[in-house]
Specification:
2 copies of one chain form a homodimer. By secondary structure, chain A is of the alpha/beta class. Chain A has 6 helices and 5 strands; from the N terminus they run βαβαβαβααβα. Strand 5 (about 160) of chain A pairs parallel with strand 4 (about 105) of chain B, so a sheet runs across the interface.
Chain lengths: ~190, ~190
């Protein structure tokens, strides 16, 4: 089999841990012991970029290139800063699924989604163990994890963020209208 | 332009709201006013499935088919049950990016990711406004949002969940090793 057939993309929020470099090296070693080649988001050189946005896009493009070159992914879907998977990892699961590459996943949380979400709701406010402490907070001035924000921009889309919280967070449709108007304008320009 | 060129996939966690049907109908109307066709996750018929897992996969496959048939997506990335985007929506952003379809996004949360995450950490425990109340909790007995869990299975992968929480949630690698072993076994079978 070719080199690409052995490549496994390592997805997960451990890139934000203070010892991420060592942890990813260990994961690559574990892959190597099984005859596989672990590919880490840290393998891409993104230093020397001019500003946060350029850095975010360099990381995004690097991760996409890495995924494209891998035949598999292993995703750490352990809940991160909430009741669910890290959103960058969720993006990557979706991306690899679209490419038809098998994704293997694991979670350190034994409670299934519904159970832990109900528990969180009943113990209101929800205690998110992983928010505090020494886990890095990605700070590119973006609306969410860079894989989401950059994916939107890179594909020709745009992210609209409220100037102030709407009265009804889930039912205010002014920003949805803005998206629709952008798409209509793009189509009118023949830009799609 | 063809019908497909006008189709917009509507992604977001409002499918869990008690008035989701009405809200999605309104979103489709807004698309229609702009000459676009809004496609909702609720457009797929998934009734009559035998059991939670079959229902989850039917929804997953329906959403993938809907996305494949759309030229655009509009994603509601407002933080949901944590500091980030709903993971099903994140999966869909990644999926559409892989297909090369422009994604437009909006968020009702004015604070950018780093700022709101630091605020959440400093006010520990994090108050997740959207966990409680009348927003439905997806309950298919899965490890996370069905788009993640089903994406893994459907692509030939597998999800490993801890029997009990490991001592170090982010550094225990036993489940990662299980994923690696599965990939090695799959390759040995020539199953990739």
């Amino acid at each position: 089999m070719s080199e690409a057939d052995r490549r496994v993309y390592i997805a997960g929020p451990e890139v934000f841990l203070p010892d991420a470099t060592e942890l990813l090296a260990t994961k690559k070693s574990i892959c190597g012991e099984a005859g596989l080649v672990g590919v880490s988001p840290f393998d891409n050189e993104v230093s020397g970029m001019d500003g946060a946005e350029a850095t975010a896009f360099a990381i995004y493009r690097g991760n996409l290139a890495s995924m494209s070159g891998c035949s598999f992914a292993i995703a750490n879907i352990t809940p991160f800063r909430g009741v669910s998977i890290d959103p960058g990892t969720a993006f990557e699961v979706g991306y690899m699924c679209a490419l038809g590459r098998p994704v293997f996943a694991y979670s350190a949380e034994p409670l299934e989604y519904a159970a832990r979400t109900r528990r969180a709701a009943s113990s209101e406010p929800l205690v998110v163990r992983d928010t505090a402490g020494d886990i890095a907070v990605e700070d590119f001035g973006l609306a969410d994890n860079l894989m989401i924000a950059c994916g939107v921009e890179e594909g020709g889309g745009r992210t609209f963020v409220a100037d102030e919280p709407p009265a009804d967070r889930w039912r205010d449709l002014s920003l949805f209208r803005a998206c629709v108007a952008e798409i209509a304008a793009m189509r009118a320009r023949g830009g799609d």
